[in-house]
Amino acid sequence: MPSLSGKRKLQAIFLVLFVTSVAYAKITGPDAGYTDAPGDLGNCTACHDTFEVPNVGPGSVNLSGAPSVYNPGQQYTLMVTVQQNNRHRFGFQLTALDQTGNRAGTLASVSSDSQVNPETGFGGRQYIEHTQIGTLATGVSSRTWAIQWIAPSTDAGTVNFWFAGNAANDDDTNQGDYIYTKRVSSDSPTSAVTVSLESQLGGVVLTAGSQYMLSWSVTGVSNIDNVEVRYSTDDGATFSISNQIFFTTDPSVTSVNWTVSNTPTTHGVVRVLVGKKSGDAVQALSRTFTITGDGGVSIPAISGATASAKKLFVYGQNFAIGAVVELNGDEQGTLNDDNDPSHFLRCKKAGKKIAPGSTVTLTVRNPDGTGSAPFAFTRPLE
């Protein structure tokens, strides 16, 4: 058998090392655990070395067909699409998890262009991904895979679909590829977040400075991140931050006593906006009402507060220059915010008087003696 020359030996060694370095970027489908879900091994950038982080390219990965609210045990057809101009090879991996990170439901292939990985991950996670035949484009610079998901047989709460896509340059290496990641949520019948406005405002005439009880109801409390109430003076076209009535991260609070602002309008609309932990939001709008003026007297109103270390920040409306924050009836050293003095107040040392987890009563008193309605503030546990 002829021996290799020194030069050819080096070439052979280089070839082996090169093949080894790219073997993990598989056209036949990735190893389990690269959807970027919490507890996964990461995402496809672990094997495709062009970029250290995903979502830096001009393309995208998306999922359609996931129900906003699933029915336990029902079968759904989901569509995964990866798109990027001037690309002709694509790949993906997807897993379905409950809120604790465990497998939620059952994933299955619809055709030979996708496969369920025989390996499972943390919490029995399933992974479905492309096959070699499923890497070619099916549209203009894009690929779509149809897959099957059978929802959990019982109510498992919110299900998150975590998925990653690869827009490859088809050069048979792990270089020059763009990776994209995303998450889509599907609520269960009990975890679905809804909101309805109980207060009937349609046709009501409110006088500036008067108080009006606003109340609402919500469902899916475990999935609620925050609740915000604002009003509009232009039929709901805009809801500016200066028109914020109330804000809380406690979804059990479902009412607020609104000190009606001195913003005369015949096109008032109240909005209750509920932010979900998944990042999106649902809202409820009132019918149109009227606010009449109060002859120029502006009543201060608190819509929210935050505390950071020793500082306390109070925000709302109609704060006059020189307004003072009262904490459980005691005046605090107060400054109007330089950029928005009528809506934001700062107390440099009041925060240290509020222990984490404790609730205090805040009021704002203007120099003319007008005072806001009491506002209950609970400092979050730190």
- The chain-level structural class is mainly beta
What's the domain count? 3
**Ends: how far apart?**
74 Å
How many strands appear in the DSSP assignment? 26
* CATH topology-level fold name of the largest domain: Immunoglobulin-like
Average pLDDT metric = 88
Unreliable segments of 5+ consecutive residues: 1-24
Q: SSE string, helix = H, strand = E?
A: HEEEEEEEEEEEEEEEEEEEEEEEEEE
Instruction: Specify the CATH class of the largest domain.
Output: Mainly Beta
Instruction: Tell me the strand percentage band.
Output: 35-45%
The major beta sheet can be summarized as: 6 strands, mixed
- Provide the helix percentage: under 10%
Provide keyphrases for this structure.
382 residues, 4% helix, mainly beta, 1 helix, Immunoglobulin-like, 5-stranded antiparallel beta sheet, disordered N terminus
Quick take:
The chain is mainly β. The protein folds into 3 domains: 19-186, Immunoglobulin-like, CATH 2.60.40.680; 193-296, Immunoglobulins (Immunoglobulin-like); 298-382, Immunoglobulin-like. It has one helix at residues 6-22, and strands at residues 60-64, 75-83, 89-97, 106-109, 114-116, 128-130, 142-150, 159-168, 178-186, 194-197, 205-207, 211-219, 224-232, 244-248, 255-259, 265-276, 281-285, 289-292, 301-308, 311-317, 324-327, 330-331, 335-336, 344-347, 359-365, 375-378.
